[in-house]
Design goal:
Oligomer: heterodimer
Number of helices of chain A: 10
Order of helices and strands of chain B: HHHHEHEHHHHHHHH
Helix content of chain A: 25-40%
Largest interface: A-B, 21 and 18 residues
Order of helices and strands of chain A: EEEHEEHEHHHHEHEHEEHH
Structural class of chain B: mainly alpha
Strand order of the largest sheet of chain B: 1-2
Number of strands of chain B: 2
Strand content of chain A: 25-35%
Number of helices of chain B: 13
Radius of gyration of chain A: 17 Å
Shape of chain A: globular
Largest sheet of chain A: 6 strands, mixed
Strand content of chain B: under 5%
Chain lengths: 234, 337
């Protein structure tokens, strides 16, 4: 069973801890969502799981193996994918080159994986020779996804995948995320659009002021009156 | 009719051929600047001295070959020495990378700080060159000097104007084309080349994709060392080697890189030729040209020269200023390889 576990994660920038004692667990094939107000430390959780931020306390486990001190690149090799929120494509390179760069570390044939990604995101196949910088926001996001999927991750982390796209594109992106989840990849995402995100989530975490405030299945959190009142607008 | 042909030959001989040659040398130089800027994100003022060092190494190896009676017949012995000179220039650039530039890269210093450090490197290399080979003029060209001599051309065609084609000019253009094809093929088609473009495009994402920054930087210096050495040697072969001129060459080279869009390799090449053609066209005296084309009554009395050749660097400086004012990103949008 592949899973990514964060245990008592405490981390921050410049000596100030932004997150404290965060516990979370992502299993393969599961969609897990972190919601919470601005500045709650949602992205920081993700960065500390990837090792882009060193922990002041806590441990990270991948499939029961401790990876707390591992370099981000090595975690990617291990099977953790990451799509940053901003600047998540190589704008001056074609869609296909973006995918190739995603598979940079792989020694085996990456053409099959590229073909699979084209099946998942047909619009990318159409625009394969176009520069990623010339695409629309939603299409770019798909390139960013595709690039991260090239490493064949077991766990994929998405930092606000629908930030700044129109509602129609957002729905489309969410349905792609579900599709990716169905292929057996575990997905951890941070989302501003909490309602939609929780409605597709298997489980969710509510983060307030850098602390685990509440956790439960997506449905539970959606129906919880307190969560509704504070984050979901009633 | 014959006057028109004469006028065309005149322009070919005094503008087109020299400008293509000089433009190629600038293009190779500017490409080196652009590579450093695109990957390491600083303006490398020491590039002219890397070129000078390359030419100097080539001269020394050439002397060695000449004293052992090794030569290439019609071709200059320097061609044989060039691979060794490239290796020594690469060694020098790796040395400065290890002891100077790498420190600032890992510190993530501001680009202007690294640019200042590169000025220091410039003085150091300059001093090394003066100690090793001195400040004097050196001609190291041997072999056959002309492919077509002006007189031969006149006799052959019966025209008034001669067309001279030096072998260094042909060599410069030929080697430049080969190098450019290689560099663009490398950047567009190979995995390593693409990873360099990716690194230049988005460093953080490149790291997330597992691209190794030290390897990218190493390959950058290999390419830059090669380009600098070839550009410096070709310039020295064509115009004679004098350490001082390479100090001045930094300006047109930077102008070329910025005009084309610094960080963009195609821009560097286009910028190189733009600067070369402007410099030569603006400093050329057109009196003879108009003499061929205009009736006698309209013949110009002056030289019809916009600027004296002493001011040729002013031309690149002016173009540089205009581009920075009107289109700061350059002809092609710069920043990434």
């Amino acid at each position: 069973m592949v899973n990514l576990i964060g245990k008592n994660l405490t981390a921050g920038y410049g000596g100030v801890d932004i997150i404290e004692n965060i516990n979370l667990n992502v299993k393969e094939g599961e969609i897990v969502v972190i919601v919470g107000p601005n500045g709650a430390g949602k992205s920081t959780v993700m960065k500390s799981l990837l090792g882009m931020l060193s922990l002041t306390n806590g441990n990270v486990f991948f499939s029961d193996k401790e990876i707390t001190t591992m370099l981000p690149q090595d975690r990617i090799k291990l099977g953790i994918g990451f799509v940053p929120q901003n600047q998540n494509v190589f704008t001056g390179m074609t869609v296909e080159e973006n995918l190739e760069m995603g598979g940079f570390l792989r020694q085996d044939n990456i053409l099959d994986t590229i073909e699979e990604i084209y099946q998942l995101f047909p619009v990318l196949k159409e625009k394969r020779n176009q520069n990623a910088g010339e695409l629309s926001g939603g299409q770019r996001q798909q390139v960013a996804f595709g690039r991260a999927l090239m490493t064949k991750p077991k766990i994929l982390m998405l930092d606000e995948p629908t930030a700044g796209v129109s509602p129609i594109v957002m729905d489309d992106l969410f349905s792609r995320i579900i599709e990716v989840g169905k292929t057996g990849v575990g997905i951890l995402m941070v989302e501003q659009n909490a309602k939609q995100a929780l409605s597709i989530a298997d489980s969710g975490y509510v983060l307030v002021n850098g602390k685990n405030n509440r956790e439960g299945t997506g449905k539970e959190l959606l129906n919880n009156p307190e969560v509704r009142k504070s984050f979901l607008g009633g | 009719m014959i006057d028109i042909i004469n006028a065309i030959v005149l322009l070919l001989n005094f503008i087109f051929i020299p400008a293509i040659t000089y433009g190629s040398q600038l293009a190779l130089g500017a490409l080196g600047i652009t590579f450093i800027y695109g990957i390491l994100r600083f303006a490398n003022f020491s590039h002219g001295e890397f070129m000078s060092f390359g030419a100097m190494s080539c001269i020394i190896v050439t002397w060695f070959f000449q004293s052992n009676n090794i030569n290439l017949g019609y071709l200059p012995t320097a061609l044989l020495a060039l691979p060794f000179a490239i290796l020594s220039t690469i060694a020098l650039s790796l040395l400065f990378n290890k002891f100077v530039f790498n420190y600032y890269r890992i510190q993530r210093s501001a680009p202007v700080v690294i640019a200042m450090a590169s000025i220091g490197v410039m003085f150091i290399i300059n001093a090394i060159i003066r100690i090793v080979i001195g400040p004097n003029d050196i001609k190291f060209f041997d072999g056959q000097k002309f492919i077509i001599k002006a007189k031969q051309f006149k006799n052959l065609t019966g025209l008034n104007e001669g067309l001279a084609l030096k072998s260094t000019q042909v060599l410069t253009v030929f080697i430049t084309i080969l190098l450019l094809i290689f560099v663009f093929w490398f950047l567009q088609k190979t995995k390593t080349g693409k990873s360099m473009r990716a690194f230049s495009d988005n460093e953080d994402l490149a790291l997330l994709s597992g691209i190794n920054p030290s390897k990218v930087v190493l390959i950058t210096w290999l390419i830059v060392g090669t380009l600098a050495c070839v550009a410096g040697t070709l310039y020295g072969l064509d115009k004679g080697y004098k350490p001082f001129t390479y100090l001045g060459l930094v300006l047109p080279i930077f102008a070329a890189a910025i005009v084309g869009g610094i960080g963009n390799p195609i821009g560097a090449v286009v910028g190189g030729y733009t600067i070369a053609f402007s410099e030569i066209m603006i400093t050329y005296a057109y009196k003879k040209f108009f003499k061929y084309l205009l009736p006698e009554s309209l013949e110009p009395s002056g030289m019809i020269q916009l600027l004296s050749t002493d001011y040729k660097f002013a031309v690149s400086f002016t173009i540089l200023t205009i581009v920075l004012l009107v289109r700061p990103s350059g002809i092609f949008k710069g920043r990434t390889l």
